[in-house]
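$ ./design --mode recover --in tokens.txt
reading tokens...
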């Protein structure tokens, strides 16, 4: 009962919060089942979520997001860093600009599209690439997973100045495609 109540209170927590350039606003959400609409429109924030997040999560500017759990629908950020320690679902990384997104889990579908000047690091499987990886410009895609690398090479267009790297077991990166 208390956890459900906490989740309800967290529904819009973080929306529109602004820190300062030299003094980030820190927000740490623990033991949450699922946070909806959290951290949309934030600026200069450092947000950690221990639990799931969905519905346009992490669409802030000049912010850092760390989510330790499942994520659905995460994108629209600008000049931000997002680390997901879990799996992602649809619309992940949509429309980001000058962001770095690291996914330590699997990416389901409908992901990493309409991005500009961003880096995507996928340390898991890209499960369904059919509706993913299109209309990106100036982006870098990195993975240590050979199956994901194959999908990156098949789907990441050479037009748009995108790059694909393979991360070797020793941590070094090998450029696989540039254009």
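writing sequence...
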């Amino acid at each position: 009962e208390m956890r459900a109540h906490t989740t309800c209170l967290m529904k819009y927590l973080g929306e529109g919060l602004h820190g300062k350039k030299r003094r980030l606003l820190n927000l740490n959400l623990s033991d949450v089942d699922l946070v909806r609409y959290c951290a949309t429109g934030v600026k200069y924030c450092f947000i950690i979520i221990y639990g799931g997040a969905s519905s346009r999560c992490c669409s802030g500017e000049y912010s850092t997001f760390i989510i330790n759990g499942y994520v659905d629908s995460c994108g629209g950020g600008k000049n931000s860093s997002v680390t997901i320690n879990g799996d992602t679902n649809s619309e992940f990384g949509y429309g980001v600009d000058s962001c770095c997104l690291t996914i330590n889990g699997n990416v389901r579908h409908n992901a990493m599209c309409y991005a500009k000047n961003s880096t995507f690091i996928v340390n898991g499987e890209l499960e369904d690439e059919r509706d993913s990886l299109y209309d990106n410009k100036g982006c870098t895609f990195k993975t240590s997973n050979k199956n994901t690398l194959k999908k990156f090479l098949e789907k990441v267009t050479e037009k748009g100045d995108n790059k694909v790297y393979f991360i070797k077991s020793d941590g070094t990166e090998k450029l696989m495609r540039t254009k």
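exit 0
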